[in-house]
Amino acid sequence: MSAVDIIGDRQITRPSGLAEEVYRRIRADIMSLKLPPDTRVSVDSLARELGVSQTPIREALSMLEANGLVSKKHFTGYATAPRMDRAQLDELFEFRLLVEPHAARKAAEAMIEADIGSLGAVSGESASSHDGFADMDTEFHKLIAQGAGNNLIADSLARLHIHVHIFRSCFRSEIAEEAVHEHDAVIAAIRARDGAAAESAMRRHIERSYGRLRDFIND
Amino acid sequence: MSAVDIIGDRQITRPSGLAEEVYRRIRADIMSLKLPPDTRVSVDSLARELGVSQTPIREALSMLEANGLVSKKHFTGYATAPRMDRAQLDELFEFRLLVEPHAARKAAEAMIEADIGSLGAVSGESASSHDGFADMDTEFHKLIAQGAGNNLIADSLARLHIHVHIFRSCFRSEIAEEAVHEHDAVIAAIRARDGAAAESAMRRHIERSYGRLRDFIND
DNA sequence: GGTCCGCCAATCCTATAGGATATTTGATCC
DNA sequence: GGATCAAATATCCTATAGGATTGGCGGACC
How many angstroms separate the first and last alpha carbons of chain B? Predict the structure, then answer.
């Protein structure tokens, strides 16, 4: 009998290592703004708080650094990345505008029916709270990127979307009713297998989203 | 006086930490095929070989894992990523085809003169050896991505280009005379500040490059 | 009053030791 | 001869202790 066992809901608790678990935890704390941008992160404190040794903390922070969520200064320690400035927001949306409409088109052409079903499941409902909308938005874009059948694109967008999430959370942006409608437009086009319509609907969504977020920053 | 000192060519040797140095070292070994794809990588061995403790090795490997160059299996150890298969190659070039022509267009419109100068410096010369061409190709695409003024794009492409480099090295691909000509066509278009021409020249270059690499794989 | 210098605390960085696990090897049995 | 099982090895994972460095604080000096 292995040390890991079957738990109630028939799910193996595969221990991918403490490092990965710590990674998820810290990333969650960053995304929930429990660790605000530009905040010092002490290895020692985290080790005590989470009740593990320093080594897995260090590994997790190294991975977070490689993903651009924290930065390390030699002999000074780690700190969460500063909030995006105007230039970075521009760069990020230029990138999204380049990739996501293409992904939407491919998804409309190649997505399997089952995944289109799950896509409908993240439409509108549970968009009552701010966090609810954020999670829904994340899931929406992730499903489409995966539906396009390109893991590289999906991973790149997921990595970037984290920063969008943080930026949006910083300003407690009101839940955009428009965004839900824009999502629905994309979903409808994908359901209709209309690649061109999906591409332009996604482009419109991202452009509007860009406009909504850009208002918060003027430096 | 700080511990780090000024060296001959007026450059500070800023010690970014052992972890980063180890990171570069391992990445170089992977790119030079000294660590071939799908090869076990022992933390202990590396520690002894490089004469450092296990901790910086572990941090470096964590960063490499986040960048997709090695993978970790719990209680089994690290291993270099397996060589790209056909599907991954397709995904990678779909991505490049999406991003790089756009970058070339922007570079033609916005690149400053000085950088165009350095661009000409990587044209043709030192393309005699295989490694020489590989480095030149890397530098060529990096300069254009940076010239487009979008760090996100530049970083994403740099990360992907490493895998192209490894794949090409695996097959000891002959130095493609064509590639140099295609590069020159892009450079000429950028020099002429012709965005449309730069975009299509880059698209053509990547498509041809894709065709050249695709021949090596048929599974 | 402003500036510079030395001290102190906090933190990171490194090294080593011990526990746990997967893979491999060898012998035994069918 | 092939398959199965068990022990041994190599490796990773964790924890703790000690050395090195940076940044901040207070006092002295101009």
Answer: 60
Residues of A near B (CB-CB distance < 8 A)? 14-17, 19, 55, 58-60, 62-63, 65-67, 72, 74, 88, 91-92, 94-95, 98-99, 102, 150-153, 156, 160
Amino acid at B201: A
- The pLDDT tens digits of the residues spanning B22-33 come to 899 999 999 999
Strand partners, A71: A79
Residue B31 CA to D18 C1' — how many Å?
37
Domain B86-214 of CATH type 3.40.50.880: no
The residue extents of the domains of chain B are 18-80, 86-214
Is A102–B102 a contact, with Cβ atoms under 8 angstroms apart? no
Write out the CATH class of domain B18-80.
mainly alpha
Task: Tokens 């060296």: give the residue.
Answer: B7
Separation of CA A6 and C1' C30 in angstroms?
34
Estimate in Å the CA A196 to C1' D30 gap, whole number: 76
Question: Amino acid identity of B199?
Answer: E
pLDDT digits (tens, 9 = 90+) for B53-89: 888 899 999 999 999 999 998 878 899 999 999 999 9
Pairing of strands B77-80, B40-41: antiparallel
Q: Do A185 and A209 form a contact (C-beta atoms < 8 A)?
A: no
Helix (H) or strand (E) holding B80: strand B77-80
At A196, is the pLDDT very low, low, confident or very high (cuts 50, 70, 90)?
very high
Length of chain B in residues, anyone?
A: 219
Phi and psi, residue A103, nearest 5°: -60, -40
